[in-house]
Design goal:
Helix content is about 15%, strand content about 40%. By secondary structure, it is of the alpha+beta class. It has two domains: about 90 residues, Alpha-Beta Plaits (2-Layer Sandwich); about 80 residues, SH3 type barrels, CATH 2.30.30. The strands form four sheets. The protein has a six-stranded antiparallel β-sheet, covered by helices on one side. Strands 1, 2, 5, 6 and 9 form a five-stranded antiparallel β-sheet that branches. A hairpin with a 2-residue loop joins strand 12 and strand 13.
Length: about 180
């Protein structure tokens, strides 16, 4: 016969205050910047990773800022029905990314890693989400300590940072000697 135990919360323990977390918000096509400005004006903390690309038309070339993860914007808030409604009530917001209608938070370390990518002078490109690859950690250079996947593109090594929840990734060219495999 097996034994089972019931546990009850200890009233003497303090309940940790609820902290805000980052959530991925799926947007209507090409609404990322509009949502950034609208949510910011409503005092909601948002993060929209952008990259500068050279856009070519028949008569000219122009550098424009384009979302690194098209269709997504990151929102930092405490997940309550009221806060979700406040965000989803903005035109262009579709839904929070999650499972069975419940938003899942994006790990803070992935948001910080994306910010570090963007702060460097390295050229970051969107990269397809990788299902199979070698997990690595950068051991040298401005991205030291960030974990990701080592991939290959046109004969050169790329370091890929994946944001698991939205199944998107970004990559930068890196020397293979600047990373070590994770076990």
């Amino acid at each position: 016969m097996g034994l089972s135990a019931l546990s009850f919360p200890d009233p003497a323990r303090e309940i940790a205050p609820v902290q805000s977390q980052w959530y991925a918000l799926y947007t209507r096509s090409r609404y990322e910047k509009k949502l950034l400005f609208e949510l910011s004006s409503r005092q909601v903390e948002v993060f929209l990773p952008m990259r500068e690309i050279l856009s070519r038309w028949k008569d000219r070339k122009k550098k424009i800022w384009f979302p690194l993860f098209p269709g997504y914007i990151f929102v930092n808030h405490i997940d309550t029905p009221e806060n979700r409604y406040r965000v989803l009530n903005v035109p262009g917001a579709v839904h929070f990314v999650g499972i069975c209608g419940h938003p899942n938070p994006v790990p803070e370390e992935q948001i910080l890693a994306i910010r570090r990518f963007l702060e460097t002078s390295l050229s970051a490109d969107p990269y397809p989400y990788i299902h199979v690859g070698t997990p690595v950690e950068v051991i040298a250079g401005p991205l030291t300590g960030i974990r990701g996947i080592l991939a290959e593109k046109r004969g050169k090594f790329r370091f890929v940072l994946q944001v698991d929840l939205i199944r998107q990734a970004i990559s930068v060219e890196i020397d293979a000697s600047d990373v070590r495999p994770l076990l």
